[in-house]
Each structure stands twice: as structure tokens, then as C-alpha cells.
Specification:
single chain, mainly beta, Immunoglobulin-like, seven-stranded mixed β-sheet, four-stranded antiparallel β-sheet, 4 helices, flat
């Protein structure tokens, strides 16, 4: 069979129109083939695809359409807060509490160039007066409000004019002289009695040990130098309230106001601070024996102010150079302790020793039937009579019980110092009674 001449044979080449159709079919079939190999995704919302640009209401917020920066932003915020707190704490730690504040004024507010207006100046110091102090024998050291006066008696000292000041005169081999200089007083004459040597050696001596950081500081007790730190056990004759001053060049002096007790030792340690002659605020460390005492500042003519309680760490208060401070410590079961001192350019440690109350005694006698049970302050007594038994002064309670009839009687009474109280217990058919036979 022969092929026809009109071009229907399979061997002929396609013309240009046919090539265009073939290319169009190829381009449309390739995306379908690639789509069959990829996972199927949901169709896009035509409203979102056709939204005008910049319209926030048409932003696609479905998962995967944006990045989540919430976690990193929270971490960065916390880091910023921590750095800020650390910076503020560091700046506060660097504050010098003794540094005088700087006050800036405009030129129109100054009275004169370089002067501060009168209405903001510090209160003027209290008026002072001169007191002459003599002692027999002469050559004694003088302490006024816990600070040593330069020189030896006879001498003149400057004291506050409008309030009383405490005076102490010390001379080796003599009893200390304690007095109070009242307002208006201009002269003191003190006669110092000799101390018996046996009593001075056996009962009136105390032991003092002092350490300091740094070491090598001079130690002065009541104005007299006794050694250099570290000061080993040193026996001192001047017992009672004392002022100990620790001094080293380049450092602020440290004054310890304490009490040396007879037959006991006192160990003192101080830390000396770098010298600062310009400071006006002075830090005062307050301690007490026993701990837990209530500390008050006593003012003349007005109510006392409670400062706090002592504890394991000292109570810290602030004083100003030139003022006089009176501190009082009180605790249950102890007599109060009061110390008064002038504030100088020195660090201070005030140790308040609270003595126990002085105990006094009286006597008690009780008579009555021997078969009664008798209790004194909850303690059962031996069979009556009770004859002149030593008893602490104060209030007590006596209870009598008849074991057969179960009748009882009680009496609350007080025993006075060096006095005897006589009681009698009577038993009748009706009751027990306790009578006071002491004559008024």
C-alpha cells in the first residue's frame, strides 16, 4: 500500500500551529505532576489573598504564619530588672554615712558670698562655763562625762553651763572620787582617801585585755596609758565605771565606756576606722550585760526615747560631735544602768553593766498545831513551830491545811528588811484562821 499525498502519513513533521499546542499541553501537565508528589495543603482563603495591602484586619494569624518572640522578651525584661536592682544596691553600699551633704543655693539666697543662710545653720553649741577642780592630794586625773581632761589637779575645765555633768577624779593608791557638778557651780574641792592595800590587792583589782585591728594602738584607761595592743592581761586598780581610749595614728580614736568589776576580767576588741576629721555624725555601738536590755535615751526636761534592745549584735545609734548623750538600760530582774558622756570625734562602744537587784532579808515565825500541813510559797514546811526563819524581803503566801477535816486557811503577807513577822494558826470546830501577832 502506498501513502496518500495529502499529508496524512505518520512520518510527516508537525507545522507551527501544532508545535504551539504541544508546548501548551506540556506546561500544564508539569505542575500537576509536581503537585502529586507534594503533601496536600488547605486552600488559601480568597478574602485574605485578595485583601488590600496594609489592612491589619486581614493579617493571617494562623499557626506558622508569624514568629513568637514572647519568651525571649520576658527573659530580657527579667535580666534588665535584676541588673537595675544590683546597680542600685551597689550604689547604696558605696554611700558614706559620715560624708557631709552638699547643699546648693542660688546666689540670691546667700547672705554673703560663701556663707549659708542663718535659717539652715546647725543649732549653736550649748553655752559653757569654767569650773576649777582641786584635789587633796594634788596630781589626780579628772574625767568629765567619760572624757579625760588635759592635765592634773589643780586645773580648770570647761563644762556645759545649763545641765549637770558627771565628775570622776582618780589617783593611784586612793579611792576614786565621784560627784556631779551642778549648774552654777564654779569650784570643786575633793579629798581623796587612801585605799587600804589588802583590799586594793584582794578585792579592788580587775584584769583588762585589749586587742585592736590594726594592732599597735595605744591604750589609755581614765587618761593614763597602760600599754599597746595587743594588750595582755593587765591588772588595774581602778574598778567601776571607766573610759578606755584606743588611739593609733591615721585612724579615728575608739572610746570604750564600760565597767570593770572587782575580781573579774574584761576582754575588749575594737576595729579602728580610717581617720576622718571632717565627719560630724558619730556611730555608737551599744551593748549590755545581760543581753536583751531595753535601751533608752534620756533627755533633760522631756520624755525619754526608746532606741531598741541589745542582742547578739550591738545596737547601733548615731550621735553628733559636741552633744551630750545619756543612755539607760533596763531589764527584768536587774537594776537599771545609766551612763552619760560627751560625744567627741571618736568611734564609741558603750557597754552597760546591769547589776542584779540588792537582795534584803527579814525573818518569819509561825506557831500552831503540829499536825497541820503548812506551805510557804508552795513549799511544805516542817512541823510547827517555825522560829525566826530567814526570808527574802517582799511578798509571800502561807497556806495551812487540816488533813482530817480538809479545812484550810491562807494569808498573803510582806516581810520587811531586817524585821521579824510573827504569825499564829488557830483551829476551831468551824474553821482555820491565821493571825498576825506582830506589833505595829
Amino acid at each position: 500500500m502506498t501513502s496518500s499525498s495529502n499529508g496524512n502519513s505518520d512520518d510527516r513533521r508537525p507545522d507551527s500551529a501544532e508545535w504551539g499546542a504541544i508546548n501548551q499541553v506540556s506546561q500544564t501537565s508539569k505542575p500537576q505532576a509536581s503537585a502529586s508528589r507534594q503533601p496536600t495543603r488547605p486552600p488559601a482563603d480568597p478574602e485574605i489573598l485578595n485583601a488590600p495591602p496594609g489592612d491589619p484586619g486581614t493579617i493571617d494569624l494562623r499557626p506558622g504564619s508569624y514568629r513568637n518572640y514572647g519568651g525571649p522578651l520576658i527573659v530580657i525584661a527579667f535580666l534588665g530588672i535584676a541588673l537595675g536592682v544590683g546597680y542600685v544596691t551597689f550604689k547604696e553600699d558605696k554611700v558614706d554615712l559620715n560624708q557631709r551633704p552638699t547643699i546648693h543655693f542660688s546666689g540670691s539666697t546667700l547672705q554673703q558670698a560663701g556663707q549659708v543662710p542663718e535659717n539652715i545653720k546647725a543649732a549653736p553649741p550649748p553655752p559653757r562655763r569654767t569650773v576649777r577642780i582641786d584635789s587633796v592630794p594634788a596630781g589626780a586625773r579628772v574625767m568629765i562625762n567619760e572624757h579625760a581632761v588635759d592635765g592634773l589637779t589643780p586645773l580648770e575645765a570647761s563644762v556645759v553651763a545649763e545641765e549637770p555633768v558627771n565628775l570622776r577624779i582618780v589617783l593611784k593608791g586612793h579611792k576614786r572620787f565621784d560627784a556631779q557638778i551642778t549648774p552654777g557651780q564654779t569650784r570643786v574641792n575633793a579629798t581623796l582617801a587612801e585605799s587600804p592595800k589588802p583590799a586594793l590587792k584582794e578585792q579592788k583589782s580587775a584584769v583588762l585585755e585589749v586587742t585592736s585591728a590594726p594592732a599597735g594602738a595605744r591604750v589609755l584607761v581614765e587618761g593614763a596609758e597602760v600599754g599597746v595592743t595587743p594588750l595582755g592581761a593587765t591588772t588595774l586598780a581602778n574598778v567601776g565605771p571607766v573610759a578606755i581610749r584606743v588611739i593609733k595614728a591615721g585612724h579615728n580614736p575608739h572610746t570604750v565606756i564600760t565597767t570593770l568589776l572587782p575580781g573579774r576580767s574584761r576582754n575588749i576588741g575594737v576595729k579602728l576606722t580610717p581617720e576622718n576629721k571632717e565627719r560630724r555624725a558619730i556611730q555608737i555601738r551599744v551593748e549590755s550585760n545581760p543581753n536583751g536590755a531595753t535601751i533608752e535615751r534620756v533627755f533633760s526636761g522631756r520624755q525619754s526615747k526608746r532606741l531598741g534592745k541589745t542582742g547578739y549584735n550591738p545596737l547601733l545609734i548615731t550621735g553628733r560631735v559636741g552633744e551630750t548623750i545619756t543612755l539607760r538600760a533596763s531589764a527584768a530582774g536587774h537594776l537599771p544602768s545609766v551612763r552619760k558622756f560627751d560625744v567627741h570625734a571618736s568611734d564609741y562602744t558603750v557597754q552597760l553593766e546591769l547589776p542584779p537587784p540588792v537582795q534584803t532579808f527579814g525573818k518569819l515565825s509561825v506557831k500552831g498545831p503540829k499536825d497541820l500541813m503548812v506551805f510557804l510559797d508552795s513549799d511544805e514546811l516542817d512541823a510547827l513551830p517555825l522560829k525566826a526563819q530567814k526570808l527574802k524581803s517582799g511578798q509571800h503566801r502561807l497556806v495551812a491545811v487540816d488533813q482530817k477535816t480538809r479545812k484550810r486557811a491562807s494569808l498573803t503577807f510582806s516581810v520587811s528588811e531586817n524585821a521579824e513577822l510573827r504569825l499564829e494558826i488557830e483551829r476551831t470546830d468551824e474553821a482555820l484562821t491565821i493571825k498576825n501577832l506582830t506589833k505595829p
